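We now fix the convention by which a protein and its fold are recorded. These numbers are not coordinates but entries in a learned vocabulary of local backbone shapes. A record is reproduced here so that you can trace the correspondence yourselves:
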Amino acid sequence: MMKRLILATLLAIACIVAASAQSVVVTYFHGKQRCITCTSIERLTKEVVNEHFAKEVKAGKVKLKVVDISTAEGKKLAKDYRITWSSLFVENATMRTDLTRTGFQYAKKRPDEFKKRLKAEIDALLKKKK
């Protein structure tokens, strides 16, 4: 009986770990003052997450964080990521992709290209396993 309880507990823990490893976090960092491109990156990122991953957001598999690095909490997180200005990251438990350059390259003048690349990265990280 005790062996079954221990086995069931370990199986439950393994399921939780596996589920969290497959979740994707999209984090957009910005400062207090923002340019048109910065606000475009945030707006388009929200559009991609809300339009293409609503079901995954509801299930906790995709999370979007918007972090103001001029706040105390934002400064701490920015230090952890080693960033000092607007930045965009997509990550799961095993991999982090920096899409900052992609954002600044496409968000303002080619928003569809930015959205396509961001969606592809989220899809890829959702499918990657440990």
